[in-house]
Specification:
six-stranded mixed beta sheet, globular, single chain, 13 strands, binds zinc ion, alpha/beta, binds pyridoxal-5'-phosphate, four-stranded parallel beta sheet
Length: 414
């Protein structure tokens, strides 16, 4: 890895060699960040060179990624998700320029595939054959899928509240799944003990610094898709804080390597039922645990695993913290579906719900340009989708009943 200098502790600054099994800081237990040689990146990658690459996946950015040159195992196609110019939604929300980055189209249908692809790569480099994690659901299904493609065994711990769609993915991908009757915090703790005991490769968020390096590829893609002309804001949902930390790391890497000359401000969106990170921003105080009280299961994280990097990202970017209700999340599901044809899970659309609120409350100007990231696909959680959108017209196959039903609905048909 000629492009990587070291791993640096974000807490105490201690620097170590970045090996595949570099997890937390050996000195203070803090979370590590991968440090790059930006001069090397500048010398080996240009915008033109990037444009010529045919691989649409995250590996097109290999100069920005902490992996060996050739990783020869079967991979899912992670990344390369579309960035839609969402003019109709922009008009409804009352904002000048809006793009939707639909990360729900990833192979296992969430942004987490970006992190899991890196976890599998590092486990491969480390010569290990078993990977484990705990997750609210999507990290689990993405690890299970990416590991299955590459031929790795997985042990996966999810809280029992995880939606059926996500659990079914785990089972289909052949993971060894433990559904823990308890909170995400309980689940995380049990997985940590098991990983320690059996020595599996650790894909737990915030423990493993390479995961964020995978997540940052969403920023690299947004930049390339916008021809390196960055928006004023990027809105996204926040749970553990790894995604927003990764988005910020990607932006900073691009900036340091001379690919962009403007850093967007981040809009961190959480649920009013669980917002420990946003509360720390709003009160300018250390974060404290909270109840996990929201339908957006992927961001129902009362004890965030990566608060330091998340808080750094929001503060350094001069960002904004917005909390939305479950009602506002369900409404954003309908809105994105109706105006963009994009179907997000509750946590997937929470960023867009927060953008709507930020505009209504005048937290950001109407003439702004914004990218809203949809982090997960709605088919993972059909129960909440039906809750958001309601049931269809249900009648026997009879034209008179159809006419009557249309009349009742007030459809204007000639
Ligand atoms: C995991 C996840 C998030 C939040 O990411 P964190 O790294 O936990 O902050 C948001 N949306 C979806 C769909 C997720 O799966
Ligand atoms: Zn340290």
């Amino acid at each position: 890895m000629k492009n990587v200098i070291s791993a640096v502790c974000v807490h105490c600054g201690h620097e170590v060699e970045a090996t595949p099994t570099t997890y937390t800081c050996p000195k203070c237990g803090g979370i590590m960040d991968i440090k790059y040689d930006y001069k090397y990146i500048r010398e080996h990658l240009t915008k033109e060179k990037l444009a010529d690459r045919k691989d649409p996946s995250i590996w097109r950015f290999k100069e920005f990624l902490p992996v060996a040159e050739d990783l020869n195992y079967p991979k899912l196609r992670v990344g390369g998700s579309p960035l839609y110019k969402a003019d109709r939604l922009a008009e409804e929300l009352g904002v000048k320029t809006l793009y939707i980055k639909d990360d729900g189209i990833n192979p296992t249908a969430s942004l987490k595939d970006r992190a899991s692809a890196l976890a599998v790569a590092k486990a491969y480099e480390a010569g290990m054959d078993t990977i484990a994690c705990s997750s609210t659901g999507n990290a689990a299904s993405s690890l299970a899928g990416n590991a299955a493609a590459a031929g790795f065994k997985t042990y996966i711990f999810v809280p029992s509240r995880a939606p059926k769609g996500k659990v079914s993915q785990l089972m289909i991908f052949g993971a060894n799944v433990v559904s823990v009757q308890g909170s995400y915090e309980d689940t995380f703790r049990l997985s940590a003990e098991a990983i320690e005991r059996w020595g599996w490769y650790n894909r737990n968020a915030a423990i493993n610094p390479y995961l964020m390096e995978g997540k940052k590829t969403v920023s690299l893609e947004i930049a390339e898709q916008l021809d390196f002309d960055m928006p004023d804001y990027i809105a996204l949902s926040v749970g553990d804080g790894c995604t927003i930390g990764g988005v910020w790391k990607g932006l900073k890497d691009l900036y340091e390597a001379g690919f962009i000359d403007k850093l967007p401000r981040l809009i961190s969106v959480q649920s009013t039922g669980c917002y420990p990170i946003n509360r720390a921003i709003q009160e300018n105080a250390p974060w404290r645990p909270m109840e996990e009280n929201t339908i957006a299961d992927s961001i129902a994280v009362g004890v965030p695993r990566n608060p330091d990097k998340a808080l750094n990202a929001i503060r350094e970017s001069n960002g904004i913290a917005v909390n939305v209700t479950d009602e506002e999340i369900l409404s954003a599901m309908r809105l994105l579906g109706r105006t963009c044809g994009v179907f997000g899970e509750p946590a997937g659309v929470t960023g867009t719900a927060g953008l709507k609120k930020a505009l209504e409350e005048g937290l950001i100007p109407r003439d702004a340009s914004v990218v809203s990231i949809v982090t997960g696909n709605g088919l993972k959680d059909t129960a909440n989708a039906i809750k958001a959108a309601g049931e269809p017209i249900s009648i026997p196959a009879d034209m008179n009943l159809l006419l009557k039903a249309f009349q009742e609905k007030g459809f204007d048909l000639k």
